Amino acid sequence: CPPAGTPSGEAAQAFARALLDGREAALTTPAPLLELFPAALAAAADDQTRLALCVARAGLVAHGLSLAHTHVRLNASQLHNAVRLRFPALGGGPEDPARRRHLFAAIDTALEEARAEPVDTGGLMAEQASAARLMMTVAQVTKHIDASQPIRFLIAETESGFTLLAALLLARLAGVEERIEISPLFETAEALEQRGERVVDEALRSPHFRAYLRRVGRLCLQFGYSDSGRYIGQVAATHLIERLKLRVADLLERYDLSGLEVVLFDTHGEGLGRGGHPDGLDARFDYLDPPAVRAAFARRGIPVRLETAFQGGDGYLLFGTPALAQATVARIAEHAFAPLPQGEPDLVYAEGGFAADLFAGARAAFNGLVEDPGYAAMLGAFGPALLDRTGSRPVRRQSDTGGPATIRHPRELRAIPNNAVLQQLGFPANLMHGLGRGAAREPEAFHELLRRSPRFSNALAFARAGLELSDADVLRGYVASLDPGTWLDRAAQTRRPGRAAALLAVAR
């Protein structure tokens, strides 16, 4: 493989030559290996050996020649830029209502006329558009490395169905439209509150996208709990994500696509931390995959595949020993094969007016907090200095402006550091802000719903945990450390030689 970073032309040429020279000997599908398992199982000396062989075979069938399911990711704007460069008629953005109808007609025409083009390493090196380059990389992977499994093509900040059609267009040009699973990521306030359903609807209106879905056999959607919770509050985000899933079930039925499998991938980075549901794995899986959502898809005959990530400390904790891993897998299996709910619907759906008003009020209150300059100042006062490093990406999102890394809006801080800073400050606002005001308006209805609705109680568990982690005195202490008066008072009282000068310097 070429070295890390941008490879030289010579390194890329050597890599391409190695791929081609080893083409006849290389495996690009596990089929030749899978053919060996029946004989190996028949010859196995004992059950332990047979079990190990079965596990290895299951891994090959599930993941092909990769260690896991391969995902790639980019932003919607990168896709838009790539198709504009190639197709001038697609200039302008889908957010412009004056051009929306023209834009969708133009991209349908482009899809009708598009044909697969040759992809090679030289063309990949020369390509300037990051989205086109990534799609060409996918083509090279499926051609030379593993053609047995589709690659998930995740699109962040998706707020228009045009984005999904743009991805399909680039995939068709690269010859990989049947090798990728185009998956929008819904995480922003706009996507969850207004546009998520419209994104799917706009894409499904295109006969090309419907035909693509029928060929690959599944519709893939991803939901970002940590980012959405950062923008609109965790409990409100939970409600909106569930509502969007239910509406997707309706859309598939409307477009006669009930035969598709639906993949619901939850990034699972809640405000308490990755996988941080306070009530154990049973409640955690019901939180991500509510019984009502499972029932809605089942009524329409739509199979659902739930995917969730166990990342970072969450993965170490739940799979750290054989006993822990066995218990975790057992809980997953219990959830996967749990019976669908019977009888009367959960009270949160049967009498949803109060709950909907509560979540809407909390969402509005949290939006006001997020737009308050003081909130951004609080997050940025200490910022990531309060934390150990979290992952490989920079804590602060990239900006086109230079100068000091001042946080002017919460969106400029990544989700995990954002949530961690709030916990360090003793003020996990993303878990509970705005709920108390709504509950106080109708306390009896609130307590009745909390007592009788498992779904409502499950979602409110985050607010309960947030309250337990809150401490106004901790927040006051941090704020006081930024007040010059605190240091002036200490300077006036100190008796240690030289200490007053140091404290006055801090005050200045």
TrEMBL record:
It comes from the Bacteria. One of its GO terms (molecular function) is phosphoenolpyruvate carboxylase activity. The keyword tRNA processing does not apply. Keywords: Pyruvate. GO terms for biological process: carbon fixation; tricarboxylic acid cycle. Signal peptide: none annotated. Pfam families: PEPcase. The keyword Iron does not apply. InterPro entries: PEP_COase (IPR021135), Pyrv/PenolPyrv_kinase-like_dom (IPR015813). GO terms for cellular component: cytosol. Forms oxaloacetate, a four-carbon dicarboxylic acid source for the tricarboxylic acid cycle. This is Phosphoenolpyruvate carboxylase. The lineage of its organism: Bacteria, Pseudomonadati, Pseudomonadota, Alphaproteobacteria, Acetobacterales.
